[in-house]
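FIELD: query
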Amino acid sequence: MKTIHAFPIVIVLLASFCHAQLRGAVEGGGRGPFAVSAPATTFTDTFTTGDGTGVANGNLHGNQVEVGTAVWQAEAAYFYSATNRAENDSTRLPLTSVDSRIAYLNTPLAAGEAITVEADVSPPFGNAAANVWTAIGVANNPAALSGSGFFNAGVGQVWILLAKDGSWNAFANATAIALGSGAAGTAPGFVVGMNHLKLQYDAATNKASAWINGTQVLTDVSLGAFTPVITATGFQTFRKEQAAVDNFSVTFGQNSQPTPVQTTFGDVVSGAGAPNAAGADSGADFDLLKRGGFLAENGNLIFPGQLLIGTGGVTLSPNNYMGLWKHDGVSLKLLARSGNDAPETGGTAAKWDVLPTVPAINDSGEVTFLASLVVSGASTPPTTVDNDTGLWSELGSTGLGILMREGDTIPNLSPLQVGGFASGCFATAHTSASTGEAAFAVTMKNGSADTAILRASITSPAVTAVGVVVRENTAMPGVAGEQFANLASTYSDALRMDSAGNLCFVALSKTGRESIWYQPASPAGSTAVKAFIAGTAATGDTAPGTGATFKNIKSPSMGSAGTICFRGFLNANGDNTSGKKGDGIWRGSVAGGFQCILRAGDDNTNRPGLGLPAGAKVGNLWHSWLTNANHGAWKGWLDVNGNGTSSTTDGDVNAIYTDLSGTMTLALKVGDAAPGIGGATFSGFDLPVVGGTEQMAFLGTVTGGGTTSANNKGVWRSAANGGALSLVLRAGDTMTTTQGVKTISNVDFPGSNTTDRRWEQPVMDSTGRLLVYVTFVGGATTQVLVP
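FIELD: result
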């Protein structure tokens, strides 16, 4: 173990709320991993906003953190300097003295809760001494934090240090308990520069875990008889030269470590026990799970999976190995299983056959899915190839019921029947405790082969009305000479609905023109109205704010109150005669009008706040989702040289733009430093997802920083209101499961690596928690909840 020298100055961060207020925020709701509860309390400081970082000899004392209601406290002699940055950029906090920073949370950590502190840190590489370091940790009794800081008996509780030679040590009870260590050069991904440290303590288990540059170096290490008392959290440096701290974050609350979805008797991972419809052990084990898992705004979740054949009576034929499992805020239960009775299919129920890999869930946690039934004469009525598919939903809050089934007569169009459903593309809304709305695309039979979009209204427990929204081969309202084409195609069956039941969808005309349509929820039976239709320069609708006309229109998303957002391509007219401003993102409503919120060719002048590099412009864009506050995040190109093209041959790179803060801005680009992996930069990322408290998350890949193909992929999430990014889960991480400690080989979201996004992608709840599909080394799979 290294010899330790420490005589730091003290800095304390005070929480500006009382004990009772914090307890209420942390303990709101239940304690299960899926309880609907208030989000964990978070403090974040990137040292870029309101802290005077650019002022030479500025004093950190009294500055409030950027996220959270906490204030830095420091002795008056503590300064930081804008001129002593060395390798550090202007957004990092360079240190100018032998000192310590402690963030103080005005209450001890309660039983059952956890705390996580993390930061990007640079040890004092410019100091000639060998034994110099930077540390993060949790402490007690801020008034006693003087001299040695974390080393003081009764003060240092749990902490980890990283030395300039790449060695590390972790301690509890000052230095009385050695939790782990690494020799020179053994810190994972160690670079001469910024490295990411993360430390977590779980009061429920009295165990500590730690990560360096995303790799776990301590996994649930017991602190034995020592029980920490935690009132302060922060960082400390021994010596100063080239030392720096960035992206300091504290999360104070429960369930702060990513873990597999929990059952009442274990966790969800291949080989572990699977629950039955009551949430008890079914006797069968999970086999492979599927990536189509979704997390609702209210914390409920749904995921598909398979059971291990040969366990608990599971067989391949007859098929009873496919299932859907739902967590309803109380426990995980089986919702549907192949071979089990399908609700509302007759006096003698039909049996489910093939279940979907992509179920749907709305904001209120109600599940809807398309499934097939076993063809059999034993059911009443008999199940045949003409009635063996259906659409089931929990709308109405009385459990699963059937919305429509193949062979059902379509109201007001008798004798026409439902001949089939588009491939799982439908939209639903929970409009009250006992009512809901659903829309879905179908093909017809028994007199017509037309396609149509239908809307079903539900008043518990029954479907009370079904109406035709639009039908193939009928006139497009307000578009002379045009009729609707196939409405169950891969283009047009992507339906969107907000929480009030307002509906939007795209459709093709018989001549191939693309369009967006809107049907309000009220009054019932309202006619669908055109938002925009694309076409030639002469026939396409004018794109707001451009003078140009729409050439193509792609799948929309919906936020709230009828707000629609979509990606459009323009003809070479209006202000796009050069063809260099030919696509963008439009947002608005049919009633209130639309605006272009981001467009190829935008720069810092015409769209203040973008924060593009000098000379750069926005390049071509993709579409994505909106939050319920009608903000979003969009992947696109960054046209680095501003020449109006998007191409890697010009040095252009992919980027993510977001207005989650209220202002459209460039959030990151390929080549930017990847938070949480010291020395690594982003090499690519998937389309972002949004939710939480105006947050985004994305799958990203990195290069550099000692990464390899085994650990170069991860999930990053922003802080509230589009704040600082942090790495939350990474390939190469280890995770403790009921099947033992496993290493993650891949992380994924449903619909990744696609740009059409036919299904909505709710994988983040209202508190910012994420549901991530994980594959472990060896092939086992799981669904992981990231708090």
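FIELD: remark
Residues 421 and 442 are 4 Å apart (CA to CA).
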